[in-house]
């Protein structure tokens, strides 16, 4: 490449060519039984880092598969999105599954979707189906994976 020639960031680094980037603002939520089961918005999820103070056994539910597809530009089957959850509360946090989201068939929901007290867990959502208005009964679908075991929160 000649001196002075500039290239777009996505051509210099493949990590910048993804469909969406979290803006780096951490989502923080206090979860208590007084608040009931809470559903996170796609905007919250797409921040990439979700921090919970889980004071009572509580569930923080993912958005629906259709909302996820709508929030990620260019979403196709095979699109993946990763996010992290930190639980610095004194009780296990359960990540609830929004409509159209399932856990991988090789593990139980408890093994995938629970974040213990004072631990963090990384998750991966993978789009497995896109609704087609020309195909009756078709729907959006995503699978939730966990990446690594929960570790003590810093």
Q: Which regions are unreliable across 5 or more consecutive residues at pLDDT < 50?
A: 4-16
What is the C-alpha radius of gyration, as a whole number of Å? 17 Å
In N-to-C order, the SSE pattern is HEEHEEHEEEHEEE
| Total separate domains | 1
Characterize the structure shown:
The protein is mostly beta strands and 154 residues long. The chain has one domain. The chain has 4 helices and 10 strands. It is globular. Strands 1-3-5-9-10-7 form a 6-stranded mixed β-sheet. Strands 2-4-6-8 form a 4-stranded mixed β-sheet. 13% of the residues lie in helices and 37% in strands.
Furnish the topology, listing elements before pairings.
Layout lengths: L8 H4 L14 E5 L6 E2 L2 H4 L3 E6 L3 E4 L3 H7 L8 E8 L5 E4 L4 E3 L5 H5 E2 L3 E11 L11 E12 L2
Parallel strand pairs: 1-3, 2-4, 3-5, 4-6, 7-10
Antiparallel strand pairs: 5-9, 6-8, 9-10
In short:
With 154 residues, this protein is mainly β.
